[in-house]
Amino acid sequence: MTNEEEQQFLTNLEKKLWNAADKLRSTLDAAQYKHTVLGLVFLKYVSDTFQIRQDELTAQLKNPDDEYYLDPADYDGEDSQEYAAELLEELEQRDYYAEVNVFWVPAAARWSFLRDNNKAVIGGAELTLPDGTTKKFSSVGHLIDNALEQIEADNPKLKGVLNKLYTRLQIDQAKLGELIDLVATIPFTHASLNSKDILGHVYEYMLGQFALAEGKKGGQFYTPKSIVSLIVQMLEPFKGRVYDPAMGSGGFFVQSEHFINAHKGRIGDVSIYGQEYNHTTWQLAAMNMAIRGVDFNFGKEPANTYTNDQHPDLRADFVMANPPFNMKEWDTGVSENDPRWRYGTPPSGNANFAWLQHMLYHLAPNGSLGLLLANGSMSSNTNNEGAIRQRLIEEDLVECMVALPGQLFTNTQIPACIWFLTKNKGERIAASGRKLRDRKGEILFIDARNLGYMKDRVLRDFTADDLGKVTGTFHNWQMGENYEDVAGFVKSARLEEIQKHDHVLTPGRYVGAADVEEDSEPFAEKMARLTAQLKSQFEESDRLEAAIKKNLAGLGYEC
Asked: Is residue 340 part of a domain?
């Protein structure tokens, strides 16, 4: 939810990014230049944020009122070599960066080193590294790969994540040097936008554009931020294990971090687990977490959630996901007797209830989950789906259903809903500190189809008030405070009522229509009044038409 000035900044940034990609279009295919540009953007970002922190530290070390103050008087004045050396040594202390979750960047991987030396190594050259040693570089690509290797060596979590492919690129080295110069102009600083959010926007835009260039639907990797925020705010993942089995680039984890920080929580109280099949987005998610200083476990490799579960023993406190809608042929190599199918074997033609049961399987005894699915999941009775839904309802696992408005997604017009499930509806204290009442035998239905606004001609979005209305209603219902049913919007239904509706979970069936203010005017009187009003308007129309014809005749026109 950016203002006009921020949006203009991001639009200008997008133009620069695509200009960077254009430099490689004639030389590399889309799959290659995607990795080439994104790798350089990552290096530029981590260098920029590192430099910002280094500038802050420099100011602190020179400020007599700061606890980090380095007194020049102890080193024969500010101009002495001893003081300069000590200042430089302090600026290279990793702890100063770790304490504010700034990604540590080795000296040979910093953008300034790439920028200053990329022309020198065209055709090969020996360089003096920042630590005083020398190394021979065969090309610009070798210089970039060396920077990525340095980062991996200093950040073990990124082992196997960064694409060290630049030496192998069949590309004019001078063109690669030009690309470095262009990426150097991309700013990751802004008065009101967080640098991490700028990076997120960069990756989101670039992956969408690259997907189009590769002949796929743009935006396929992303859940709209407003929906991610809604699910995160409703579940409130303050403490414990958070899991996304279809994580994409890690949007749920990023929003969880924002939520925790906004509510003065500690990100260290949360453990992040994820899985992703697409190699590029798996890498992106890992980089997303690393630069934020968030500990994570995304498994040993990108993998299929159904055939190669990377976290078989995980029981998470919060599970959140937006898997592909209505995925077909998902069960190749999956046994019908898989222990995850406790509530029924999902059909081969649709993975909706496979995702749902996989998430339930990985849910802790007091855990809660939020899952975005196509609307058909709420009412379909084909191929065992109705029987699975009935089992979930009768075993009292469904807590809340939210129907969403249309036009929220860039890549699909399929109507969507959010399922919220929990294994414990009993009275307890939630991770957020809320005291939850006993909700056994109840399900909350929220119809949010009329919320939101059109942010442009094709896309709808939620306002902060919309998000607050839905989350506030849900939390009040959970606690039994300030809650009441509202016709057309929300209804708390007992399982007996849901059974009467054949276990269909569509909110519209339960919330009913919004109350309409009663018309106190009798019908006969209203009809007479409106007829007289219409007659008067016709007479006025005839008068105006006659006046126009008279004026035109006076000007010499025939009517």
From this structure: yes
Q: Which CATH number does the domain housing residue 257 bear?
A: 3.40.50.150
Q: Is 175 exposed, middle or buried (0-12, 13-18, 19+ CB in 10 A)?
A: middle
Give the distance from CA 207 to its chain's centroid.
13
Instruction: Give residue-wise pLDDT tens across range 32-64.
Output: 676 787 788 889 988 988 998 999 999 999 999
Cα–Cα dist 319/364, whole Å: 10
Indicate the residue type of 143. L
User: Is-contact 330 306, C-beta < 8 A?
Assistant: yes
Residue 336 bridge partners (DSSP): none
Residue 496 and residue 551 in one domain? no
* Three-state DSSP class for residue 454: strand
- 371 and 271: one domain? yes
Does residue 218 form part of some domain? no
Mean per-residue pLDDT pooled into runs of 10, the chain (559 residues): 78 78 66 75 88 93 91 83 90 89 89 92 92 92 94 83 86 84 82 78 70 49 78 93 91 83 80 90 83 84 94 96 88 91 94 96 97 94 93 97 87 84 96 94 96 85 93 97 95 96 95 65 78 86 84 73
Between CA 142 and CA 160 the distance in angstroms is: 17
Taking only Cα atoms into account, the Rg of the chain, rounded to an integer number of angstroms, comes to 30
CA 303 to chain centre: 20
Which residues are registered as beta bridge partners of 403? 417, 447
Residue 223 phi, psi (nearest 5):
-95, 135
Do residues 345 and 466 share a domain? yes
Residue among 110, 9, 132 nearest 53 (CA) = 110
CA atoms of 421 and 345, how far apart (whole Å): 19
Quote the number of domains for the chain: 3
Q: Looking at the structure, do residues 38 and 150 belong to the same domain, yes or no?
A: yes
What letter would DSSP give residue 132? Answer: S
DSSP string, 40-86: HHHHHHHHHHHHHHHHHHHHHHT-TTSTT---GGGGTSTT-HHHHHH
**Does 127 share its domain with 244?**
no
Are both 471 and 534 inside the same structural domain?
A: no
The pTM (predicted TM-score) of the whole model is 0.77
Are residues 378 and 433 both part of a single domain?
A: yes
Q: What is the pLDDT of residues 491-550, one digit of tens each?
A: 999 999 999 999 999 999 999 876 544 556 777 777 888 888 888 888 888 888 888 888
Is 188 in the same domain as 271? no
Please name which of 274, 208, 202, 217 lies closest in space to residue 244, comparing C-alpha atoms.
Answer: 274
CB 435 within 8 A of CB 429: yes
Domain that holds residue 168: 4-213
CA distance 98 to 293: 8
SS3 label, residue 537: helix
| CATH code where residue 145 lies | 1.20.1260.30
